[in-house]
């Protein structure tokens, strides 16, 4: 089958039960991380047709004909969010970073002027083992100019 990732087409062989997380990592998108592998932590989040999806529980076959983005595909937008997270001390081990950035961009696709409550609600499932979330929230508020 063919997959469109970060605006580039890839021809892949996949099995019916392969998950998008495994496919993307095989293609070399190492920003896509595995955490719980049971749809609970959001560390595997990528964007499919402008919506955040948990790639650990999303069948690769479902992504046929859709636009998939990993953080590598978001260029300057991802770099800007990453530097705001670093400035606010929200980037410690960094393991959750790519998924968090993808989720922030997913929020922006849906609502580019979110309130603090909407941000908290949209990001409530993104777990981070290192921070207390306050630095992340400050960085996100700066990104959305709140
Ligand atoms: S690894 Fe996918 S939700 Fe945790
Ligand atoms: S910075 Fe380590 S898990 Fe979030």
Task: Outline the structure in words.
This is 2Fe-2S iron-sulfur cluster binding domain-containing protein. It comes from Miniphocaeibacter halophilus. The chain is an alpha+beta fold. It has two domains: 2-71, Beta-grasp domain (Ubiquitin-like (UB roll), Roll); 73-143, [2Fe-2S]-binding domain (DNA polymerase, domain 1, Orthogonal Bundle), CATH 1.10.150.120. It contains five helices and five strands; from the N terminus they run ββαβββαααα. The protein has helices at 20-26, 75-87, 97-110, 116-123, 134-143, and strands spanning 2-5, 8-11, 45-48, 51-54, 67-69. A five-stranded mixed beta sheet has the order 2-1-5-3-4, covered by helices on one side. A hairpin with a 2-residue loop joins strand 3 and strand 4 (51-54). 38% of the residues are buried. The structure holds FE2/S2 (inorganic) cluster (2 copies).
